Description:
Radius of gyration: 25 Å
Number of helices: 3
Strand order of the largest sheet: 12-14-17-20-31-34-37-40-44-47-50-51-43
Number of strands: 51
Structural class: mainly beta
Amino acid sequence: xxxxxxxxxxxxxxxxxxxxxxxxxxxxxxxxxxxxxxxxxxxxxxxxxxxxxxxxxxxxxxxxxxxxxxxxxxxxxxxxxxxxxxxxxxxxxxxxxxxxxxxxxxxxxxxxxxxxxxxxxxxxxxxxxxxxxxxxxxxxxxxxxxxxxxxxxxxxxxxxxxxxxxxxxxxxxxxxxxxxxxxxxxxxxxxxxxxxxxxxxxxxxxxxxxxxxxxxxxxxxxxxxxxxxxxxxxxxxxxxxxxxxxxxxxxxxxxxxxxxxxxxxxxxxxxxxxxxxxxxxxxxxxxxxxxxxxxxxxxxxxxxxxxxxxxxxxxxxxxxxxxxxxxxxxxxxxxxxxxxxxxxxxxxxxxxxxxxxxxxxxxxxxxxxxxxxxxxxxxxxxxxxxxxxxxxxxxxxxxxxxxxxxxxxxxxxxxxxxxxxxxxxxxxxxxxxxxxxxxxxxxxxxxxxxxxxxxxxxxxxxxxxxxxxxxxxxxxxxxxxxxxxxxxxxxxxxxxxxxxxxxxxxxxxxxxxxxxxxxxxxxxxxxxxxxxxxxxxxxxxxxxxxxxxxxxxxxxxxxxxxxxxxxxxxxxxxxxxxxxxxxxxxxxxxxxxxxxxxxxxxxxxxxxxxxxxxxxxxxxxxxxxxxxxxxxxxxxxxxxxxxxxxxxxxxxxxxxxxxxxxxxxxxxxxxxxxxxxxxxxxxxxxxxxxxxxx
Length: 694
């Protein structure tokens, strides 16, 4: 076994395996062998300053399964030699003209390597405050270390799941004769003080005839069964789910291996409608419309724990030459990655653009599908690489430079899917670009387009808890409808934040953001992939949000709302809040919108966007209910911002950067009652006093 983990905040750490101490200096990450007889891990972390946070998280266990029998997912031996490995530099193509590629040379024949598959992510986000003293964090690993290759591997799992809600006794079947609700659009109330389970064959809902709104009272639970890898999909069509009790698919120690799909609909009937946009006014005041609403009730929770795919995104290890190159054509359908992956056959992936301009009308990102038996792990020149084979070749050049940037490759597919229905897409989706009136820019995204998307949404409020791991969010978010995002932690209690998270998820084709953290604290937002997003993707909403962890996420193909702000100099005009742009800062939508620097922003990647990462200047919180709470977001000190990367960004601004500290969102200063936000994307003169606390 190996244990890979990350240490934050401390300057020294000592790990123990039983009684065998092994000192190591604190680092961003570490990978250590665990002796076979070990039964526990103890982490000792010493902080530099009084009151400083010392944390250890992202603990993951690996096992070499290459010696197991072929029925246990054997090491795949490549049949073709890779080319252009290790990484070779190729010039980045300009936004116009054809890409070029350095000559391709054949590499050595790869040999099979041990395959390290993830066993378990700990659900214990382990942290403590220390006052110059050592903090001791204990983790029991006896169950993991007792794993034997001869043990059965249910659903191809790499660990023995425990505390699985779908295996509990005394569950009420959804189709029980005393319950069995009709799929006629009428509201459904889960019986009080009961735990109801949905299994394959229970549901009678269809896209044409969804269930009405489902309410789970505070004393009740709604649980999804696990059909196992390769089993049938449980498909639920509903007008929405209100959670006052618990909505569960797996648990923190029981990842779901089967497929679950929840489709959210706006209304029942109305077969003549092709869009749900006419429901936007109702959605603005009704949190449950076309959504999963985890209400502000003590004990309310949403637990969705899908299959582990690791890593959720990586980078190319060799450039994709494109069809115009003289390289072998197979190089456009066989991708070499910097990491070995355990992605599924027929999984959907994205490969990011390597052009500077990245818009809907100038789109060189590519979506592709992994072929059957298309995932391998190979060694070239003594280094491990992932290799995936696609069902069809890519059509464009994708860069992989040496000692500079490489295009990202992200997995979109997950086995738990929450999606909007087929009436979610915008109906104002043309033209893709319009002529620009600003000298130096010929084409730009059009105003008054892509404003009608009305997908599903998920919102976790107040003292409720949300643990979303390994979930795919598709056709979600409601353009310009405040608070209706794919994932939204809203006025979230710090205590609930410390046990809530969004990890290992994907969000794609979103009409309003990827995730919004609003007046929320201590959240873990890690290892997520966001692609094709309208508005800022990873979004700290009001400027008061602090002590959140935005780590190792990917944001790509991010679109401004109601046209892009073109900035030919340091000074531009103001944009006011309106019906066509609810948050005027979305005129310069970026992958990461960090309105308060007092957070952990570590190891993220951004491709595209007006900027990749933006630190706007907020003199006050932009939530009217928090406006006068005394927080000055622009002056808050940073916690840890490191290891982030950006490319293919800043096309629309002459003097901004891929990481942009600028732009100001504020209320009219002469009107204390104003509810209209003003945004200026320019190099504003308002000073930022942010500094790194260390």
